[in-house]
């Protein structure tokens, strides 16, 4: 029977019915279209379809008959499987219900804990903010007590500067802007800062003038506390250097010398130079030349005193900076300032002093024949003034200045007058050869 059905299947085309996109309407329309063209008979197609259906029914019946026992066992297994699935479904429902109950037990406490955690964080931030505000107000009150009316003493000024530094640090580390009580006090801090800086400036200047190391140290500590030490030292060194430059320039100014000679009561306007020719270029007459020369060398002596004062001030700054130290890093103030100034403060001062001395002496010699001859003829006197100057300065810094010409500072200063030395030696040699 099976062989007969298989033989019948060989005449049936199942391929068109096994296509994934099979559409019965499309298939029927195709048969009708072919019938309209005369390529296929509809009756024959219907007969073929009926035959195919009968063949498939027979094959299904044979399969059921052949595998009857297997199908029954499968059906029994399906019933058992349905029972198992029902049990599993019931268990899943129980698990789902337990999950919902567990979620209810966990979710609500979790949300509460989350809320409490946020509240705690905000309370901690608020508490920290209040603590900083209280610290700020405490420092402000302490600053007010440390700064009574009138001049501030060394100790009061130093303490006030340290308190102000704490206030600045607190404001930098904390965002207290917008708090009215803080904003009101911040506006007053600038006035306090200005007063402290002005007092420290006066203290530093007084200490420098009187060579009082304690005053200078207290003033430098104030500027360090306010993080202004670098700027102040640079400003002080620049001020001393500029002051020396101005004094050197004033010392060798020919117009100033002429004015001083006139004020001495000796008239030079009627002086004549050989041949009865009056000098109209500001140069002294032959009779007035000794007076001008005397005035010049008195000015040079005074200049050496002023240079000495400037040098001992810069050495005083160096000494105090070397023993004042940062309490945390133990770095000396001198190291801190040297790093900021990109070099040694004292050496830079000497470089500036020698450069200005050389520039102004050469400029004066170029502008005045009298000054040129005075410095050339009086070179030994000029050299003697410098050596006396070196001797006085060496008391304050033996390592910096001495009679030893290998000392860098001495070499710089001697180099500043080297042009006059060469002219003096040349002139002396010529006089010797003429004899």
From TrEMBL:
Entry keyword set: Golgi apparatus, Membrane
Cellular compartment(s): Golgi apparatus membrane
Keyword set includes Transcription: no
GO biological process terms, semicolon-separated: intra-Golgi vesicle-mediated transport
Domain annotation Conserved oligomeric Golgi complex subunit 5 N-terminal: ranges: 16-143
Membrane topology: Peripheral membrane protein
Residue ranges constituting the Conserved oligomeric Golgi complex subunit 5 helical domain according to the UniProt record: 176-390
Keyword Membrane among record annotations: yes
Any single Gene Ontology cellular-component annotation: Golgi membrane
Highest taxon in the source lineage: Eukaryota
Name of this chain's protein: Conserved oligomeric Golgi complex subunit 5
Organism from which the protein derives: Lobosporangium transversale
């Amino acid at each position: 029977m099976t062989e007969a059905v298989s033989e019948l299947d060989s005449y049936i085309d199942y391929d068109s019915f096994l296509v994934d996109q099979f559409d019965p309407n499309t298939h029927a329309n195709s048969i009708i279209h072919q019938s309209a063209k005369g390529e296929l008979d509809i009756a024959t197609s219907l007969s073929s379809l009926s035959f195919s259906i009968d063949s498939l029914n027979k094959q299904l019946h044979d399969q059921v008959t052949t595998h009857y026992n297997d199908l029954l066992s499968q059906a029994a297994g399906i019933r058992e499987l349905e029972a198992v699935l029902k049990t599993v479904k019931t268990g899943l429902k129980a698990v789902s219900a337990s999950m919902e109950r567990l979620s209810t037990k966990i979710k609500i406490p979790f949300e509460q804990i989350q809320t409490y955690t946020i509240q705690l964080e905000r309370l901690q931030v608020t508490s920290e903010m209040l603590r900083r505000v209280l610290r700020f107000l405490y420092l402000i009150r302490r600053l007010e007590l440390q700064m009574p009316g009138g001049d501030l003493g060394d100790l009061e000024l130093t303490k006030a500067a340290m308190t102000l530094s704490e206030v600045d640090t607190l404001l930098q580390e904390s965002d207290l802007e917008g708090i009215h009580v803080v904003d009101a006090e911040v506006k007053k801090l600038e006035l306090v800062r200005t007063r402290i800086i002005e007092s420290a400036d006066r203290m530093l200047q007084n200490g420098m003038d009187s060579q009082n190391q304690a005053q200078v140290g207290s003033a430098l500590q104030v500027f360090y506390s306010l993080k202004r030490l670098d700027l102040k030292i640079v400003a002080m060194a620049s001020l001393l250097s500029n002051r020396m430059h101005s004094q050197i320039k004033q010392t060798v100014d020919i117009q100033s010398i002429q004015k001083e000679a006139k004020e001495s009561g000796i008239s030079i306007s009627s002086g004549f130079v050989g041949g009865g020719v009056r000098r109209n270029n500001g140069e002294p007459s032959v009779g007035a030349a000794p007076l001008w020369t005397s005035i010049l060398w008195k000015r040079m002596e005074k200049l050496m005193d002023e240079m000495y004062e400037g040098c001992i001030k810069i050495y005083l700054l160096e000494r105090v900076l070397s023993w004042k130290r940062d309490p945390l890093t133990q770095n000396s103030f001198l190291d801190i300032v040297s790093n900021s100034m990109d070099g040694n403060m004292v050496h830079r001062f000497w470089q500036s002093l020698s450069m200005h001395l050389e520039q102004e002496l050469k400029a004066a010699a170029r502008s005045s024949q009298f000054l040129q001859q005075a410095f050339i003829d009086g070179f030994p006197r000029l050299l003697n003034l410098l050596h006396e100057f070196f001797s006085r300065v060496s008391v304050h810094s033996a390592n910096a200045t001495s009679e030893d010409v290998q000392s860098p500072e001495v070499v710089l200063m001697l180099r500043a007058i080297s042009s006059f030395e060469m002219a003096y030696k040349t002139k002396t040699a010529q006089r010797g050869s003429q004899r």
